[in-house]
Design brief:
Layout: H1 12-19, E1 32-33, H2 45-53, H3 68-82, E2 92-95, H4 98-109, E3 118-122, H5 128-135, E4 139-143, E5 145-146, E6 152-153, H6 160-165, E7 166-172, H7 184-197, E8 200-204, H8 220-226, E9 235-240, H9 241-245, E10 253-257, H10 259-272, H11 278-288, H12 292-313, E11 326-330, H13 343-354, E12 356-357, E13 359-360, E14 380-384, H14 389-405
Parallel strand pairs: 1-12, 3-4, 3-7, 7-8, 8-9
Antiparallel strand pairs: 2-10, 5-6, 9-10, 11-14, 13-14
Helix pairs in contact: 2-11, 3-11, 4-5, 4-10, 12-14
Length: 407
């Protein structure tokens, strides 16, 4: 067995299942889950129809690089969304969802034979970053976050010695779980650090199309162009259709950026067997070429956040995020042995008494010595507003009742 497998941490939902063993939810309430970030809006008919029309393609092996028509659709979307012109033949690559590609990219980029090989990621974070780093043979450095800045990563807290060992940096904007969007000033800092130390930046942007104001979130490609980095050196942006188009089961997304990195990534993927099925490619073309369903999807999320956020703000430390479909809320109530707010106990009791599932924040972070708090998820919960509007409002009302009962 690969000994690196032993370094993996249990996935947050596995840990939550263990922590809730023996918890019996109150059967007087219908169960409502705000725990898993799985889109539950209807899949657009145009995507389903394109998928069905392409069923005859099951009889052919797909190319790992994807059909030219798909790559043109991907480059076209980037142009319309960000105003960035990409070479469809060399600067975009279809992937089987951003999760798969985020993991595989580390296996392509990291050289574990170099002493101190390091992958840097924000904290709290999407656990795939950590698993990808560990299985690539690197160590993971967790960047402290700043609660007063919506838990944005404190890049300035990373030492020059750590940056010098860094081979890959994961960023997530809009962030999971906080919903924070990186401003141009942070991109400028990270690009300067990348130039100085030579590491690759992998930008996870799968929540980019769910936002609440009139201005869409800034993306990595857009930031690079604004800062005069037209060659997109050392930058790979990854995104997917799962959240944008409500097709988590399609497993479709793309990577875009530095052509030399994508050439190496394509080589890896050719051997890894990562070709996207032809019918999925055709359905993806239909999805990327249509924005009407994206506008409708965004409106559904906006309606939920408009009603749910004020309700929860009465009893929790929570505010509308920059983007995404999560609420990252501070709770009150139970205390642990150290006298700190115990969001795990809060979530367990909420499930037991009101049959509402949320995810304790500590499961999405790691302890950082010297940071306050050591684990940025301590005392916080993540809520995914993916259920229908009525269910989200009902869940919020139950959380209010539960929290008031703790006073």
């Amino acid at each position: 067995m690969n000994p690196l497998l032993a370094r993996l941490h249990p996935y947050p939902f596995e840990r939550w299942r263990e922590l809730t063993q023996g918890v019996v939810p109150n059967a007087a309430y219908k169960p409502i889950s705000l725990g898993i970030g799985e889109p539950r809006h209807a899949t657009p008919a145009l995507i389903e129809e394109a998928l069905v029309r392409a069923l005859p393609m099951l009889s052919s092996y797909p190319a790992t690089a994807g059909e030219p028509a798909l790559r043109e659709a991907l480059a076209g979307w980037v142009q319309r969304r960000y105003g960035v012109t990409l070479d469809a033949a060399t600067q975009v690559l279809p992937v089987n969802g951003s999760r798969e590609a985020l993991f595989a990219l580390a296996q392509t980029v990291v050289d574990p034979t170099r002493p101190g090989a390091t992958v840097v990621c924000p904290n709290p974070f999407y656990q795939i970053y950590e698993g990808a780093a560990l299985l690539a043979g690197a160590q993971t450095h967790y960047v402290p976050s700043v609660p007063a800045r919506n838990f944005a990563a404190d890049w300035g807290a990373v030492s020059e010695a750590t940056w010098a060992r860094t081979q890959l940096l994961y960023v997530c904007s809009p962030g999971n779980p906080t919903g924070a969007v990186m401003p141009l000033s942070e991109w400028k800092l990270l690009f300067e650090l990348s130039d100085r130390h030579g590491f690759v930046i992998a930008s996870d942007e799968c929540y980019s199309e769910i936002y609440f104001g009139d201005t869409p979130p800034l993306g990595g490609l857009q930031a690079a162009q604004a800062l005069g980095r037209g060659d997109l050196r050392k930058l790979v942006v990854l995104t997917s259709l799962s959240k944008r188009s409500n097709v988590p089961g399609l497993r479709s997304g793309f990577a875009a950026g530095d052509r030399e990195l994508l050439e190496a990534f394509l080589l890896y993927r050719t051997y890894h067997g990562s070709a996207m099925g032809g019918m999925v490619q055709r359905a993806s073309i239909a999805a990327w070429n249509d924005e009407a369903h994206v506008l409708a999807n965004r409106a559904l999320y906006r309606a939920k956040f408009e009603q749910v956020t004020p309700l929860l703000a009465r009893v929790l430390d929570v505010a509308l995020p920059d983007a995404g479909f999560y609420l990252w809320a501070g709770v009150a109530g139970p205390r642990d042995a150290k006298g700190e707010v115990d969001e795990i106990a809060f979530a367990r009791e909420l499930l037991a008494q009101y049959n509402v599932a949320v995810l304790p924040g500590r499961l999405l972070g790691r302890d950082v010595p010297g940071a306050q708090p050591a684990n940025p998820g301590q005392g916080r919960i993540r809520m995914a507003l993916v259920a229908p509007l009525a269910e989200c409002v009902e869940a919020a009302q139950r959380i209010v009742s539960f929290t008031e009962s703790l006073r």
